[in-house]
């Protein structure tokens, strides 16, 4: 909490009385009354830096930051070599979250009182606050500017080669990116995703009144039996609906079976205890698997970039489409 300066002023006994009364109200936490008394004293002695410094402290506690800053600047103008004016300014700028400017003000205060432990502590604290603010801004930027396509550039090239002249891969890639980005946004907002399979249906062949593009699989991972039943259903669904590709999204937390993060050798999990969700892409020519982990930074949930996994070792579901070695086969 900002404190009023008790030092002597330049005015007569009436001015001293007003300032002392202001100090008493300040100590009692009545900052509004204190500011009013300091204002009366300033009218009688407008060149007294202590009065402006005290009123700046009162305004700071009232969160009238612009008025407080103006008084701190006046304090410095009236007595440029008095550390208190710079200290007041630094405290106010800190409250405004202008950490770089606040640090400069405290550095100036330290020039006029190098032994001040309080100012040194403020400078150290501001350094950490500035780092935290920068990281919070970075986290906010990462949360709001999701660019999954950039993370999947290698896959994009691989799909282009696999499917050659058939441009269907572009729809597959766009569908995958959209599914991933939607899942990431959901995780950022709620720390969860719904376990679902998103099918890329054939626009000409699929009976859209019979087959939906999204299938809920929330019961799929309760046991080996439910897992096998779900897989069988999805594989038949993919075939009957003439789906061209599918994308599975499942949070790690609901998977009782198969716990693909357990095992040794090639099955060894390399992502520790991190929470997150799996995304598995299925098509006749390509199968891919990613784990998108998350952490809590600056009070916000933040998804990491998709980490590619060996689908042979960590698949969440077996192959949904009959395998094709090339687009012509």
Walkthrough of the structure:
About 2% of the residues have low confidence. The longest helix is centred in the middle third of the chain and has 28 residues. The chain is an alpha+beta fold and 329 residues long. It contains 12 helices and 7 strands. It is rod-shaped, with a radius of gyration of 32 Å. Helix content is 52%, strand content 12%. Strands 1, 2, 3, 4, 5, 6 and 7 form a 7-stranded antiparallel β-sheet that branches. α2 packs antiparallel against α3. The protein starts with 12 loop residues before the first helix and ends in a 15-residue tail after the last helix.
Please supply descriptive tags for the structure shown above:
single chain, 329 residues, alpha+beta, 7-stranded antiparallel beta sheet, 12 helices, 7 strands, rod-shaped
């Amino acid at each position: 909490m900002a404190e009023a300066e008790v030092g002597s002023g330049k005015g007569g006994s009436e001015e001293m009385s007003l300032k002392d009364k202001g100090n008493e109200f300040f100590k009692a936490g009545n900052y509004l009354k204190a500011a009013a008394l300091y204002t009366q004293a300033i009218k009688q002695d407008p060149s007294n830096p202590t009065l402006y410094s005290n009123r700046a402290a009162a305004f700071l506690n009232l969160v009238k930051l612009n008025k407080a800053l103006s008084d701190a600047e006046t304090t410095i103008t009236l007595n440029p070599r008095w550390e208190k004016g710079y200290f007041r300014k630094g405290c106010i700028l800190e409250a405004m979250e202008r950490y770089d400017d606040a640090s400069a003000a405290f550095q100036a205060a330290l020039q006029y009182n190098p032994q001040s432990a309080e100012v040194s502590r403020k400078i150290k604290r501001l350094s950490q606050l500035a780092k935290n603010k920068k990281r919070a801004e970075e986290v906010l930027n990462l949360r709001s500017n999701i660019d999954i396509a950039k993370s999947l550039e290698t896959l994009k090239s691989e799909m282009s080669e696999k499917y050659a002249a058939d441009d269907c891969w572009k729809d597959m890639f766009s569908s995958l990116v959209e599914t991933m980005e939607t899942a990431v946004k959901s995780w950022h907002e709620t720390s969860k995703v719904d376990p679902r399979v998103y099918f890329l249906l054939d626009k000409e062949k699929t009976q859209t009144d019979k087959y939906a593009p999204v299938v809920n699989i929330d019961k799929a991972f309760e046991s080996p039996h439910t897992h096998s039943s779900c897989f069988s259903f999805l594989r038949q669904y993919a075939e009957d609906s003439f789906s061209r590709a599918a994308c599975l999204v499942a949070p790690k937390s609901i998977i009782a079976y198969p716990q693909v993060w357990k095992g040794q050798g090639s099955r060894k999990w390399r992502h520790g205890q991190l929470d997150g969700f799996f995304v598995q892409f299925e098509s006749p020519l390509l199968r891919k698997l990613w784990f998108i982990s998350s952490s809590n930074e600056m009070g916000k949930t933040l998804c990491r970039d998709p980490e590619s996994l060996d689908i042979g070792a960590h698949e969440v579901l077996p192959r949904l489409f009959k395998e094709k070695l090339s687009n012509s086969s």
